[in-house]
Amino acid sequence: MSAPASEVKQYDLVVIGSGPGGKSAALQAAKSGKTVAVIEKYEKVGGGCVHWGTLPSKSLRESAYRWSLGSKAGTGLPEMQRLMKRKERVIETESSHVFHQLSKNHVDLYRGEGRFSGGHGVEVVHADGKITTLIAKRVVIAVGAQPVAPSYCKVDGVRVFDSSSVLELKHTPKSMVVLGAGIIGCEYASIFQAVGTKVTLVDKRQVILNTVDREIVFHLVDRFINLGMDLVLEAEATRFEETQDGLRITLSNGKVIEAEICLVAMGRQGNTASLQLDKVGLVADARGQLKVGEHFETSVPWIYAVGDVVGFPALASTSMEQGRIAACNAFHLDDHLSKFELYPYGIYTIPEISTIGLSEEELTEKGIPFVVGRAGYREVARGQIVGDEWGMLKMLVSPDDLKILGVHIVGDNAADLIHIGQAVMRLNGDLGYFLKTVFNYPTLAEAYKTAAFNAYNKIIGRRPQDKGKS
C-alpha cells in the first residue's frame, strides 16, 4: 500500500495524519469511490490516539484498575513494566487494524511529514530527505496535538513527565505531583493512585472538570480523597528543585511538596508548525489550532481540519465523526451521513465518568425546568456484586413532556452505560421508555429504571392529575 517516494500522483483527497479523524475521513472518501492518500510521519499508523494517547492510557488504566481490585493491603507497588505490557499489545493490534482498513480500501500511504507547497500541492518529506509532491483536490488536516509544559519545568522523562513520556515509565513511583486537573491530569492521577502511588493533584482553578455536572464531580473528588489523594486548588507551581530522591515543588500558595516525579498535564498544542500553512493562506492561533466551520471547512474552501487540531472537544470519538463529516461535505455525499449532535463524553478516571446532554448547572442557567432522578449503584444488585458503592446514575428530566435532558454517570462502566441514555435521547424518547422496559438482572443498566422512577415519583407528586399513570 505504501507509495514510492519518486511517484507523483493526483488524488481526490489527501489526508495529513492517520489518527481517528484522518482515518475516518480517508475511509469515508475511499468507500465513496474517491482516490485517497494518507500522509503519516511516524513508522506506524494510528496517530497519537493509538500510540501515546487514548488507547495506551486507557489500557494502562484498565491494568491499574484490575490490579487495585485484586490487591491487598501490604502487597506493595506493582511492577510498572508488567502493567505496561498490555498497552503495547493493544497498540500493536490497533495500529495493524488501522493499516489493514486503509489498505483494503485502496488508500495510498505515504510515510513522511506532510506540508503545503502552494496551489493544490502537498509535499511529503520522507525520512531520507526526498520529497514527493501530491496534487490534491481536497485536503483534510488531521495532525493532532501534543502536550506542552510551562517554561519553569522541563519535561525530561526522568523526573518530569508529560502525558506521552509517562507511558515509558519503567517503575512505579512512590509519589507523584500532577500539575493540571483537566481530563488528562485527573485520569493519570487516579491511575497512579490506584496502583499505590501517593498522588498530589494541583490546579490553579477553583474547580476541576468545570464542563461536567458538579454533583458528578463531587462524587469523583470524594472518591479521590477517600483513596488518599491530595487535591490542591487555586495554586500553581512556581519553583522546581531536584533533590536526592526526586523533586521539591513550591506552589504559589506557599505549600512545598516533595515527590519522586511530576506529571505536567497543562494543555496541548496543535501540530501545525511544520505544515507551511502560509503557502495556502491559513493561519493557526497561538495554540496551533485552526478555526473551522460547521462542516470542518477552513477559510480555504478545499481544505478541512478535524480532531485535536481544531480544539474542543478533542475526543477520539468526535474526531472520527468530524473526519467523516468533512469527507461527506467535501464531496457532496448524502446529507444524512453528515449529522453531528448529542455526543457523549467519556472520562476514564477511576471511577469512570460519562455524560450526555445538559448538566444541572446548564439547565439552571438557561432557565429550563427539570427534575432529577438518581440511582446509586448500591441500589442495584450488580453494583453490590462488583463492589462499587460509590457509583451513581443521574437523569435530568423535563417535568412537562418527560423528555430526557441529560444523563450523567460516575462509576463502573459509565462510558458504556451512557449509550443507553444516548439512544433514547437521540430517538426522541422519554421517561416512559425506562419505566416500561425490562433490563437484564443483575446489571448496572437497571440503574436507569431506578433513576427513572425516582424522577417520575417527584413529577407526579407535583402534578396530582397524573397519579396512577405510567
Question: How would you describe what is shown here?
Answer:
The chain is α/β, with parallel strands linked by helices and 470 residues long. It folds into 3 domains: 10-146 and 269-337, FAD/NAD(P)-binding domain; 160-266, FAD/NAD(P)-binding domain (3-Layer(bba) Sandwich), CATH 3.50.50.60; 351-466, 2-Layer Sandwich (Enolase-like, domain 1), CATH 3.30.390.30. The chain has 12 helices and 22 strands. The chain has helices spanning 20-31, 47-51, 54-70, 80-104, 183-194, 214-226, 316-330, 360-366, 381-386, 414-426, 431-436, 446-462, and strands spanning 10-16, 36-40, 108-111, 113-118, 121-125, 131-141, 145-147, 160-161, 175-179, 198-203, 230-233, 237-242, 247-251, 256-259, 261-264, 268-270, 303-305, 345-347, 353-357, 371-376, 392-397, 404-410. The strands form 5 sheets. Strands 1, 2, 3, 4, 5, 6 and 17 form a 7-stranded mixed sheet that branches. It has a 5-stranded parallel sheet with strand order 8-15-9-10-11, covered by helices on one side. A hairpin with a 2-residue loop joins strand 4 and strand 5. Helix 1 (20-31) runs parallel beside helix 7 (316-330). The termini are far apart. Residues 464-470 have low confidence and may be disordered.
